Amino acid sequence: MATALADGGDPTNTMMMRNKQVLAKDYITGNPKQTDMYLSVTTIKPYLEVDSNNDVSVLVKNLYLSCDPYMRGVKFNTTKVQDRLFNSFAPDSPIIGYGVAKVLDSHHPEFRKGDLVWGVTKWEEYSLITDSMTDSLFKIKDADVPLSYYTGILGMPGMTSYAGFYQVASPNKGEFVFISSAFGAVGQLVGQFAKLMGCYVVGSAGSKQKVELLKNQFGFDEAFNYKEEHDFDAALKRYFPQGIDIYFDNVGGKMLEAALVNMRLHGRIVVAGMISQYDVDPEHEKGVKNLLSLIYKRIRMEGFTVYDYYHLYPKFLDTVLPYIRQGKITYVEDIAEGLESGPVALEGIFAGRNAGKQVILIARD
Amino acid sequence: MATALADGGDPTNTMMMRNKQVLAKDYITGNPKQTDMYLSVTTIKPYLEVDSNNDVSVLVKNLYLSCDPYMRGVKFNTTKVQDRLFNSFAPDSPIIGYGVAKVLDSHHPEFRKGDLVWGVTKWEEYSLITDSMTDSLFKIKDADVPLSYYTGILGMPGMTSYAGFYQVASPNKGEFVFISSAFGAVGQLVGQFAKLMGCYVVGSAGSKQKVELLKNQFGFDEAFNYKEEHDFDAALKRYFPQGIDIYFDNVGGKMLEAALVNMRLHGRIVVAGMISQYDVDPEHEKGVKNLLSLIYKRIRMEGFTVYDYYHLYPKFLDTVLPYIRQGKITYVEDIAEGLESGPVALEGIFAGRNAGKQVILIARD
């Protein structure tokens, strides 16, 4: 796919590669639409400049790019948002996101030409990863599984599920686990980790189809469509007559309020996300009731982000790779082909058009 | 004080002791008033009956009784309240509460005649402690400090402060600590523990006088009167320009909401109480905003009750007794004399009439 272009000018630039890109038109608010992005072609040198002091640059060829739910703008520009290492959208800049890539050239001591890596890259054919951005690159050592898995089950979403469940939730065999937004990439995995540990697992999701898949394909004990429930408290009491030990919260708001009164003694609420709150105008925020349950039930409620847990990545692989090889975990991908398909694919995950983890194939090697 | 009464009837009951009591007229809602209680005199045998199977009864002479803020009724009868081992008020029953006592007779393997104990007892001269209630008795081994301290700094409130600060808050030297309702028995101690660890400590309280005492007598770095603050967020930003590492929450509601946005990365919120919420009709509960901060700041928010930490009591004494003996902790008591003064004293702590930990002296030995 790399096209060498003759460059008759600057003698240090004798060869350049074509570099197709997907760029953002501007900062965005809320969910991205395909019309918020555009395609362009530029060129990039096929090698790094001569090493300078402390230079850790890595030049990569992108193979797979990932569409993830965090790739959106907040509706209300608030200084409260501090959980991101980077913003996906900036005016006339390539979209930034997770991906799988092959190293073409490297000044970084940990990466060599030919290495496969995953981490934070850009929506283009070739990317120059510099400075602290290289901290978010991980070398891929196990390539006997599909490389695209490193955008999902073996990448950031997988690591999020692992850290949230095994580290934050402190789970025990036989416990009662509730997961909201359970059909998301993280929720699906948390539910399966919990089942593998011998927990009783119930998930909530937003459609009849997702509920059926959670039960029949992902092995959840029960699942329900929150849109069909008028009283979340009653719904949780129906599925957890003995109460909830672990609530893996992806939504916040009313569901959190209902979960709080249904927690068991010494329950744990893992706050992974609060979808219901991201676009709420702070002026109209409702507030969460029932926090007195924190005392009555001695509950630990803990927010986390995956960035604090990447030191556990090798341990994570030791747990999850065998599950994948032994077919103990269900993982479904939806692979769109070509960088051009990126904008539609990204818009699609917010409309629920994807049938599995949305990945964009850029190059096979 | 014990008065032996001749009993001419039953030969097994030849001697009885007079037993003055303070009883509740009924269950109560909200803060107790002296008119909710009455005095009465009954009799009690000065020894235990012959041992029966598994009998662990302990007969004690009460020396000091404790008035604590938890000794009240909830206004709205809700099934949510499960944090208590006992209710202080029941119709025509002696008030139940913490106290210091001397063992007169015992079938319990851990207690012998003459032992000094502290724990859950009743508002009367002599109490028969039976069954699981004996689980809440602790033998007093160190009597070189005032015995009354075992109702406060060396008893339940002290243990609550210790567990909440050292165990739940996971404190580190130099951290920024905020304590609401800081002039309460627990708040005062938490603040002093935090100072002894080298933390920066700010407390909120409800009067100018309390604020001055926190700063001048209890060694807090700063304190403020929350009744004079219209904007808790602004107040916290004034005292914690760099943010809060540990919020020891005794009040909940609006102060918790403001603390949440002022927490630092990896902050901890210890939920010890939510005074502002206890009497709120669930129909009119407002809900707490800013919970998104839990994720953005990776905050751990944890409710606890002292009952889960009594196994650490010996460790607690090892920490606190030296502090007391070396004069490193300020502790103020307000001792009322005689069981008759109990109802007024208990009413008084809810009106702020006490000048220190409210104790009732029943007998000196």
UniProtKB/TrEMBL annotation, chains A, B:
Q: Where's the Oxidoreductase N-terminal domain?
A: 20-132
A single Pfam family it belongs to is ADH_zinc_N
Q: Does the keyword Oxidoreductase apply?
A: yes
Q: Where is the Alcohol dehydrogenase-like C-terminal domain?
A: 185-319
Do you know which InterPro entries this protein is assigned to?
A: ADH-like_C, ADH_N_2, GroES-like_sf, MDR_fam, NAD(P)-bd_dom_sf
UniProt keyword list: Oxidoreductase
Q: Which GO terms describe its molecular function?
A: 2-alkenal reductase [NAD(P)H] activity
Q: Does the keyword Oxidoreductase apply?
A: yes
**What's the protein called, per UniProt?**
2-alkenal reductase (NADP(+)-dependent)-like
Organism of this sequence: Quillaja saponaria (Soap bark tree)
